Amino acid sequence: MNLSTRHWWPDLPMRHWARGYGRDTLLRDAVAAVIVTLMLIPQSLAYAQLAGLPPEVGLYASVAPLLAYALLGTSRVLAVGPVAVVSLMTAAAVGEHAAAGSAHYLAVAITLAFLSGLILLAMGLLRLGFLAHFLSHPVIAGFIAASGLLIAASQLKTLLGVSAGGHNLVEMLAALWAQRGHVHGLTLGIGAASLAFLFWVRRGLQPLLRRLGVPPRAAELGAKAGPVAAIMGATLFTWAVDGGAQGVKLVGAVPQGLPPFTLPLWDQALWQSLLVPALLISVVGFVESVSVGQTLAAKRRQRIEPDQELVALGGSNLSAAFTGGFPVTGGFARSVVNFDAGAQTPAAGVYTAVGILLASLLLTPALFHLPQATLAATIVVAVLSLVDVGILRRTWTYSKADFTAVLATLVATLAVGVESGLVAGVGVSLALHLWRTSQPHIAEVGQVPGTEHYRNVLRHQVITHPQVLALRMDESLYFANARALEDRINAAVAQRPALRHVVLQCSAINDIDASALDSLEAIDQRLRDAGLQLHLSEVKGPVMDKLQRSDFLQRLSGRVFLTHHQAAVSLASAGD
Amino acid sequence: MNLSTRHWWPDLPMRHWARGYGRDTLLRDAVAAVIVTLMLIPQSLAYAQLAGLPPEVGLYASVAPLLAYALLGTSRVLAVGPVAVVSLMTAAAVGEHAAAGSAHYLAVAITLAFLSGLILLAMGLLRLGFLAHFLSHPVIAGFIAASGLLIAASQLKTLLGVSAGGHNLVEMLAALWAQRGHVHGLTLGIGAASLAFLFWVRRGLQPLLRRLGVPPRAAELGAKAGPVAAIMGATLFTWAVDGGAQGVKLVGAVPQGLPPFTLPLWDQALWQSLLVPALLISVVGFVESVSVGQTLAAKRRQRIEPDQELVALGGSNLSAAFTGGFPVTGGFARSVVNFDAGAQTPAAGVYTAVGILLASLLLTPALFHLPQATLAATIVVAVLSLVDVGILRRTWTYSKADFTAVLATLVATLAVGVESGLVAGVGVSLALHLWRTSQPHIAEVGQVPGTEHYRNVLRHQVITHPQVLALRMDESLYFANARALEDRINAAVAQRPALRHVVLQCSAINDIDASALDSLEAIDQRLRDAGLQLHLSEVKGPVMDKLQRSDFLQRLSGRVFLTHHQAAVSLASAGD
């Protein structure tokens, strides 16, 4: 087997594609870059607004991170930049330390990106990518759905033209209700029209383009650029009616120029309090990025290297921190568009970065009259597709434990906030997993007549022997479930005075830890004190190796049998 | 099978032994009670001193709890009262809120017993006894050994006749070092002599008694009463030399009388801050009590009911709180003595309670001249037998993960304190367990020539097919390890262009949670996109039931085979 070679310090993944980069690949990458750029401009502005930051910060965060990822990342098509959930988490974390819109707020966001970058980089170099696996899918699904609802709710104030705050759904809705008398009509009109247009774009634009004779593929991609049309239309309309003078909140003056060079704040107290949010942002960002990266890579039989992805995302966030940006990760929508548009290599990301750079140099004056409500509508339409309420029904049908984990995450996120929701979800899912494995399935087995097979006495007509108790444990023996075996054997021995032998069939036991070994010794000792013997059968090789490193096998009252049938035959005849 | 019947509200276990209680049983119980009483008097005084409480509180805590346990407990021989580790934990918890020796200190200790009683009772009624299983044996062993060292260190100040404090080993030794110039010679002499005598009693008294013609069994039991001789000797000596006047700290005036009626403090802030210590004390007490109870019950083919034990210990602690006592549990040494002395039923506990009651009514004036250093010596000798350093060597040999858990518990307990040590130990052992199961063993399997058996390609000479990848997962599929399977399959598919089929042999998979189901769907989708099929073989019944509640099987690109051999034969021939 040709295992992939591993290095402690990974060589740049770039070398896999940079060599042999030809004109055909360049053309495909460039076409993809144009489409992604058109999609990213409104998204970047909108997610900066969601994070409570000035719009140009969204553009800055879409330049350097794309370059860093192109250099370090292992996915050919992942597009890195601001994404909805991470922007919401940024707003929640930074809002604890600074007022939205202040210079300090931006400085804290930059520091958060820096810390998140350091954490991702460290996790990558220490090969801790597996830690992300402890976010179970129900927790992720519940968290993403709740975040989508929270994000949509957070944009309502902008759509209605009022001021309101809140970190969870209850606070947000209460703040909106308090402002119900101050809804701004024109803003609401622009917001509602933008929403309607964007929802129609998702469903209706592609069929329309095809009816107009546009080839299917071009129609599909053209529809992705629909939000740009919404932005142009809304900007023109607001300019024409002078909406700003009538009180419609505008994006306003956006500085023209290259991303600035920035540094994080060196403030120990701030770092300490940002540590947990930065860790959660890192893990959520990593999980989102790796899921989409793996899905897209597999479609072309490529693969990504999760630990190297951590390094790449770490580099991307550090680069964001040094160029006036905020926390970023690999986005789902933009990566899929990049893939569908035919991007072949991370060079497409480089061209996209150049496109965004041109936009931030040349386009920003044109954004002056863009209403914030239109950006809010862009966000609402994007995130509502994340809200998958079906997960509740599906997990309810499949497994009550998983359903509980989804529900706990959903409720905690909506009722308390993003960070508490995530922590609660991980806690509940770990607790449920431990609880399940601490209640192992232990079957008493007997011989299926005429065979050498031994099956559960409760499910099959089998032969048992009054002096022999044969138990099969369907779980590895470890500290949380070893007592269950003790209890089961104690109960059986107390109930059956005729019992002389207990045989433990170990075919499903993949490991025995020190606690379980102590339990086995205690069981053996108690059985011996009561005049019984303990035997083992079908012990797996690695488990046997481990037992031989202790003195358990020397002290065992009974024997170790290769097959369970040998044990049954030998003990039944000895007992007669 | 005759399963034991279970009730939501358990009937009193007393009925099992009270009916048919005859003169013979009464005699045996009474003899055991006399011996246990002789052992308990010095122990109760000493553990009260260890907990920072007046000596009579130790006697009070040995009366009502014994009665409550006799009524509610399921062990025939467990002796409940103050024990070393719980007394140390009490001192640590109460010391945070009150000065040792003050009336408030006793009131807080009573409140702690009350809270601990409520927690145990609630855990019992909710059948949460399994929670104690999450204290792994390495953690318990490390904690008990470290506590033994801490307790011994805490008694050094009394043996040296100086004042010193501290909650961990470093603080204690530093405080003693600062007092090195103030060692009280006579106290040290009495302490050293008591220590030497008590160590000799453990080893030398029994052989001496036998050489003097005492029958073996009486010699064994007589040796257990050795500490009483130490106490009498030291008291007489101190009285004769008027040690009190020379600065030897004495037990002093102990109130004569029945245990008082007391109530816990109703102080919400105090309850909140005592909640965690009370929980830890409850869990540690329960674990100690159940271990000894199970060991002794099994020797007579009896059994104990862990959830009912929680109720009984809860009642014992509540009764301690109402009679001027402090947290109690089933003690190891006293229960073994009770068992060895021939106790047959919990009535022995009732007689012991009467014995202690008589002592607290009549004997307390005789304790005036008892030096505290002798009680300290009693404690040191008792706890040093708990310090099992061999656990480090044994776990090192057996399993590095278990060794890490012992070491973490030991170091945290000694360096920080009892509560931190316990929490650190549980955290480390859970983390290591999750880490291990998140790195599952996944073997590629092939056919053993001439058989229908499929084994690991790395360990056996087997036949594989270039178009078929057969993997066996040796762990239940759950959120923390599902990605490992995804990664493994992604890697294999990227490396082998000829691959057409992936077969997952599910014989060792006892459960598939919702995350793992999502992973299987993602794997299936990616394989399908790359032109491959995913098949399953040997899926267990309960797992199949669960899969059928989702739409996974309808969407699966491949098939589900009953045996792995059928899969291999069918796919190899289809591929040709």
UniProtKB/TrEMBL annotation, chains A, B:
<feature type="transmembrane region" description="Helical">
    <location>
        <begin position="132"/>
        <end position="152"/>
    </location>
</feature>
<dbReference type="InterPro" id="IPR002645">
    <property type="entry name" value="STAS_dom"/>
</dbReference>
<feature type="transmembrane region" description="Helical">
    <location>
        <begin position="269"/>
        <end position="290"/>
    </location>
</feature>
<keyword id="KW-1133">Transmembrane helix</keyword>
<feature type="transmembrane region" description="Helical">
    <location>
        <begin position="348"/>
        <end position="368"/>
    </location>
</feature>
<feature type="transmembrane region" description="Helical">
    <location>
        <begin position="26"/>
        <end position="46"/>
    </location>
</feature>
<dbReference type="Pfam" id="PF00916">
    <property type="entry name" value="Sulfate_transp"/>
</dbReference>
<feature type="transmembrane region" description="Helical">
    <location>
        <begin position="105"/>
        <end position="126"/>
    </location>
</feature>
<feature type="transmembrane region" description="Helical">
    <location>
        <begin position="66"/>
        <end position="93"/>
    </location>
</feature>
<feature type="transmembrane region" description="Helical">
    <location>
        <begin position="159"/>
        <end position="177"/>
    </location>
</feature>
<keyword id="KW-0472">Membrane</keyword>
<dbReference type="InterPro" id="IPR011547">
    <property type="entry name" value="SLC26A/SulP_dom"/>
</dbReference>
<feature type="domain" description="STAS">
    <location>
        <begin position="458"/>
        <end position="572"/>
    </location>
</feature>
<dbReference type="Pfam" id="PF01740">
    <property type="entry name" value="STAS"/>
</dbReference>
<feature type="transmembrane region" description="Helical">
    <location>
        <begin position="183"/>
        <end position="201"/>
    </location>
</feature>
<dbReference type="GO" id="GO:0055085">
    <property type="term" value="P:transmembrane transport"/>
</dbReference>
<dbReference type="GO" id="GO:0016020">
    <property type="term" value="C:membrane"/>
</dbReference>
<dbReference type="InterPro" id="IPR036513">
    <property type="entry name" value="STAS_dom_sf"/>
</dbReference>
<keyword id="KW-0812">Transmembrane</keyword>
<feature type="transmembrane region" description="Helical">
    <location>
        <begin position="405"/>
        <end position="432"/>
    </location>
</feature>
<dbReference type="InterPro" id="IPR001902">
    <property type="entry name" value="SLC26A/SulP_fam"/>
</dbReference>
<feature type="transmembrane region" description="Helical">
    <location>
        <begin position="221"/>
        <end position="241"/>
    </location>
</feature>
<protein>
    <submittedName>
        <fullName>Sulfate permease</fullName>
    </submittedName>
</protein>
<feature type="transmembrane region" description="Helical">
    <location>
        <begin position="375"/>
        <end position="393"/>
    </location>
</feature>
